[in-house]
Structure formats: structure tokens, C-alpha cells
């Protein structure tokens, strides 16, 4: 069942790419914004990800 789900997702994406509805681009591992949600990051990298996601610190005034 799990493999079937992966197959369906794969074919869905492949079909969208062939129809030019979706474009896949390489993103370097150092630029993966999802890392902020999945890994402990050094503060400079965390801040870079946060800025790129345009998130604001809830404790900042304004």
C-alpha cells in the first residue's frame, strides 16, 4: 500500500512535468528551506532560512 502511494505520487509529478505544468529545479542542500523544520541548525543557518521563509519573530515589537 505504501509503495502504491509513492508510485501514484511519482506518476502525478511526472505527468505534470511532461505537461509543462510543473518545473523541477535542483536546490543545493545548503539552500533547503525545509531544514528549518526537520533539523537542528546553527543559528546563522537558522536565521538565513527564517529570512528566506519571511517569518517574523513573534517577540519582536511592531
Report the C-alpha radius of gyration, rounded.
17 Å
Count the E strands.
Answer: 0
Low-confidence stretches: none
- How do the SSEs run, as a string of H and E? HHH
Helix content percent band: 40-55%
Overall mean pLDDT stands at 86
Largest sheet: none
Structural class: mainly alpha
Count the DSSP helices: 3
> DSSP strand (E) fraction?
under 5%
Estimate nothing, just give the exact number of structural domains: 1
Estimate the global geometry from the Cα principal axes: elongated
The N- and C-terminal alpha carbons lie at a distance of: 49 Å
Report on this model:
With about 60 residues, the chain is mostly helical. Helices cover about 50% and strands about 0% of the residues. It has one domain. The longest helix is centred in the N-terminal third of the chain and has 17 residues, at about 1-20. The protein is elongated, with a radius of gyration of 17 Å. The termini are far apart. The model has no long low-confidence stretch (mean pLDDT about 85). This is RNaseH.
Amino acid at each position: 500500500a505504501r509503495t502504491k502511494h509513492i508510485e501514484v505520487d511519482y506518476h502525478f509529478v511526472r505527468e505534470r512535468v511532461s505537461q509543462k505544468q510543473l518545473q523541477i529545479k535542483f536546490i543545493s542542500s545548503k539552500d533547503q528551506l525545509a531544514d528549518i523544520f526537520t533539523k537542528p541548525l546553527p543559528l546563522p543557518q537558522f536565521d538565513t532560512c527564517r529570512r528566506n521563509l519571511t517569518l517574523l519573530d513573534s517577540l519582536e515589537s511592531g
